[in-house]
Amino acid sequence: MALKWYRKSWQYEGKSGGVCSNIASLYAGLGNIRQAKFWWNKAILELNDGDAALDYAKFLINRENKRDYHKIIELLKFAIKSDYITEISKEEAGQLLKNLEST
After folding, report:
1. Which of 7, 21, 42, 61 is the most exposed place for a label (fewest CB within 10 A)?
2. The model's pTM
């Protein structure tokens, strides 16, 4: 039900990285990884959303797939450089990047 309302919000109230990221998180929770990636990428590539990049990176970190390592680093660096990210998220991205690069 929440997914339906987020999609309506996206459609009628305008594009928002936060809405995209919420849609992605809901799809990820439902196990629809393909749609989750689509919505995270939409927020990142079309809207330059740093918070979405951080959310996507954390999702990949939790999957614990070593093949995702370079993508995670790329997402965290994007998040840190983004103008569309909260200060606390920027700090979290920096700490995650530091932890990953030290392992």
Report:
1. 7
2. 0.88
